[in-house]
Amino acid sequence: NSKNRRTITIGDDKNMMIGVTIWGENCxxxxxxxxxxxxxxxxxxxxYRGKSLNAGSGINDIIIEPKIAKAKQLRQW
Length: 77
Known about the structure:
The chain is an alpha+beta fold.
């Protein structure tokens, strides 16, 4: 169902936080847990009721625990 949505809050090592809305099948496809490193591609900025992000709808637009240098830095943070 393309109407499904889930909003999570993400943050970085500079203590910046923003909401990310995940749509459709990706709501159930990923079991995201607090403290996990999550990378998003193809996000669009929304300014409805404040700034937020809308995640891309493709299966490759969300990566849990990516194998990149920045993810390693965030785990150490």
